[in-house]
Amino acid sequence: MATSAAIYEAKKLLRRQIKKRILAMSEEAKRKESAMITEKLLAMEEYKSSHRISVYLSMPSEVSTFDILRDIFNSNKKCYIPRYIGHQMDMLRLHSLEDMQSLPLTPWNIHQPADDDIREEALNTGGLDVILVPGLGFSKNGQRLGRGKGYYDNYIQKCIELCHKKPHLIGLAFSTQMYDQVPVTENDMTLDHVVFCQSSGTNSK
């Protein structure tokens, strides 16, 4: 079994490799793959039957979640987005696309509720049915390589402890982010589905 130090080093190397692969993607390829992945996600029964869903607000290096957000509001689902303060992440209620666009921008150019913005937190009102989990690398069997901060792994654990249920965990991945396997530890949450794009179309676990 690999040591913690070996896994840490393997993760660091793979993160560097994946970032280069994503940088090499054209904007057109990202748009096309994002559209196909969105279509696949919206057709999933787990998504269609969900009422309370957490969505990350995508950076240019990630599968776009804009059309997913639009569908959530059109479908009258409750939407929650992450707010990062120090080492903690909360999932706060978002009411509309206009609400999102009114939020201040972080240094990463992503909209996020201000530190003093009082909003409904998902764990205080019943938890979540689905969490769309961002990441750098994914495998078909649900392994995920995050950015190393542990925000989502910790939050999902809180969901289980406080709400006594595990949300359905779904990753969204460009073709360049998919691997047969990625290095993980016992603290890394396994996803229930990874929706990704291949040259021949979309696929998912």
3D structure, described in words:
The protein is an alpha/beta fold and 205 residues long. It has one domain: NagB/RpiA/CoA transferase-like (Rossmann fold, 3-Layer(aba) Sandwich). It is 33% helix and 22% strand. It has 6 helices and 10 strands. It has helices at 4-23, 27-42, 45-48, 66-74, 97-101, 151-163; strands spanning 52-54, 78-85, 88-94, 130-133, 137-139, 144-145, 168-173, 178-179, 193-198, 201-204. The strands form 2 sheets. Strands 3-2-1-4-7-9-10 form a 7-stranded mixed beta sheet, with helices on both faces.
What's the SSE blueprint?
Elements: H1 4-23, H2 27-42, H3 45-48, E1 52-54, H4 66-74, E2 78-85, E3 88-94, H5 97-101, E4 130-133, E5 137-139, E6 144-145, H6 151-163, E7 168-173, E8 178-179, E9 193-198, E10 201-204
